[in-house]
Specification:
Helices cover 17% and strands 23% of the residues. With 86 residues, the protein is α+β, with helices and mostly antiparallel strands. The protein has a 5-stranded mixed beta sheet, with helices on one face. The N and C termini lie far apart (39 Å).
Amino acid sequence: MKTRIALYGALREADARGYLELDVPPGSSIAELRELLAAHLREHAPQVNAGLVRISAFASAEEILHNHREVPEGVELAVLPPVSGG
């Protein structure tokens, strides 16, 4: 299934549109999506630190999605990297 992922912070550098669309096998977990996204970034956006994906939060419009959760179908997700500063 196609999953649209909005990118924020340093991850936004991966695509000028501010989002990516990845093919995600039905029934995949957020942990599996996390690995797919990191692999995509390493291949298609080497200027972006793919390691940020491992420490970023995944969220739908309603909630934070933890690694054990199944990727919801037909919902745009956001990847929120950690923020620093004051």
